[in-house]
Amino acid sequence: MNDWLDEIKWNEDGLVPAIAQDHVTGRILMMAWMNRESLSLTAAEGRAIYWSRSRGKLWRKGEESGHVQTLHELRLDCDADVIVLVVEQLGGIACHTGRESCFYRVYREGTWHTVDPVLKDPHAIYREPHSHE
User: Can you tell me which residues bind Zn(2+) (predicted)?
Assistant: First the structure.
């Protein structure tokens, strides 16, 4: 039934990296991990569901923040060891820092520079201190 999941090369922890990409702009929003259950549920429910390594449980993106990722397409790379989720990012914020993307720092001349603005104060998004995972 879930034989499509058998085609994925899961790492030694039973996980695969998953990259979320905006379905309109193509911007990389974030990277997280998925296990068989989270990937199967993502396909079934049509929304991004990851595996939180730090919490040791399923993480339905947006369950606390409201920033759900609606799935448009699932892609598997040539080596079958990375997933891309093409998503609509509800609320326009993927990062727990309140930014559009988790990739908001750019390397220039030996240092990292923050180049994207905070769209919403994280304290207004979450009830408790939060990490993306």
Answer: 78, 95, 102
